[in-house]
Amino acid sequence: MGSLQELEHLLKRKDDKIRELQRQLDEKEMKIQELRSQLDKFQSVLPATVRPLLNGPRKQRAQGISAEPQNFRTIQDLSQKTFRKHSKNNR
């Protein structure tokens, strides 16, 4: 284990590093506030009709899937096939 002076020196270096990181954090938070303010200003200037175009389509349509046969041959095959009948009593 190091001497008391070495430990104090390490502690001072850590404190200095913490202060530096805190300063950087404060600068970045100020920059974020400035950018948010500018964004609000620019958004308030844009006409309401332009804003939706910037965000893309308002809705995205879903694509449906049909369970019906898609080609003529499949329709012919199904129309010529006979299916067994089941009475309701046999269920």
TrEMBL record:
Residues 68-81 have a biased composition (Polar residues). Keywords: Coiled coil. Residues 82-91 have a biased composition (Basic residues). Residues 9-43 form the cGMP-dependent protein kinase N-terminal coiled-coil domain. InterPro entries: PKcGMP_CC (IPR031831). It comes from the Eukaryota. Residues 4-45 form a coiled coil. It holds the Pfam family PKcGMP_CC. Residues 53-91 are annotated as: Disordered. This is cGMP-dependent protein kinase N-terminal coiled-coil domain-containing protein. It comes from Lottia gigantea.
